[in-house]
Design a protein that fits this description.
The chain has helices at 3-16, 105-115, 135-146, 154-170, 175-182, 187-200, 208-214, 219-230, 234-252, 257-263, 269-280, 284-294, and strands at 20-27, 30-35, 42-46, 49-55, 57-62, 65-70, 73-77, 81-89, 96-102, 128-132. By secondary structure, the chain is an alpha+beta fold. It has a six-stranded antiparallel beta sheet. A hairpin with a 2-residue loop joins β5 (57-62) and β6 (65-70). α1 packs parallel to α3 (135-146), α7 crosses α8 and α9 packs across α12 (284-294). It is globular. Keywords: DNA-binding, Transcription, Transcription regulation. Residues 280-303 are annotated as: Disordered. GO terms for molecular function: DNA-binding transcription factor activity; sequence-specific DNA binding.
Amino acid sequence: MDVSLLRELQEVISRQVMADGAAHRVLPCVTLMSTREPTPSIAEVAEPMFALVAQGAKRIGIADRIFDYRTGQYLIVSVDLPLKARVVEAAAEAPFLGLGFTLRPEEIATLLLETGTAQSSRTDPPGIAVSDLTDELIEPLIRLLRLLERPDDIPVLAPAIEREILWRLINGAQGAMVRQIGLADSRMARIGRAIKWIRDHYAEAIRIEELARIAYMSVTSFHRHFRGVTSMTPIQYQKQIRLQTARSRLMSGAENVAEIGFAVGYDSASQFSREYRRLFGQSPGTDGRNLRQSKEPGVGPRQ
């Protein structure tokens, strides 16, 4: 990797975003983030995306797996996954600099069809992976971000540059993952349909047979492929979605803990509190108060 290109990417990100620890959407498919200090862990459901670290380091947790990526590396997420993410390396003299790029299945599918590269993978790619940036990927990213300084050029030039970025990803180290996102009948896309059902019906009881039917798989095959993509069973995945949804509702403070537990699908308040504490390290009530305080003016986020 050309170090001068990486420095140029760092400079253009720094010019476009404040080092406030927030994610700023600068284009419909692009977010930028910068922070001068490590951040607390944030739970979120990540949609298919390409995320890079131009400076610093970030840690992603999914189930019992940890993915670290740092300066000059990127991460691909190929399906909706409940993750815990935090910046682990940042300083005032060298702020963390990150970029996120949404991977839209329809745009990948169009590119695959136009180029005749729409073949399926013979193996199951994972749902998340880390690789090293290449010069061929950095160059169009710099050009895309430079358009922010000439807004009138964005409608004309941005779509072509975004296609170039997708093409580099399709032909890069995680190309098999990216291609699967765009293939409607790939195993990953079929697992994605089951994942969408769980996200839309997270408070309902899961029937594995129904999920397997949605994915057009046998129950045995569905279990194997679901775990291969998400690192979780369907039940574990649903639990993560329930608890992350509960955390978002706790932040608003409009409902009490028991009401939220029942609303996201728990029949037992004690079970809800126990599983919430296991995932987030605090009881729902305590965590909710801390989350609300961290959003108040003049109050920083808690570690």
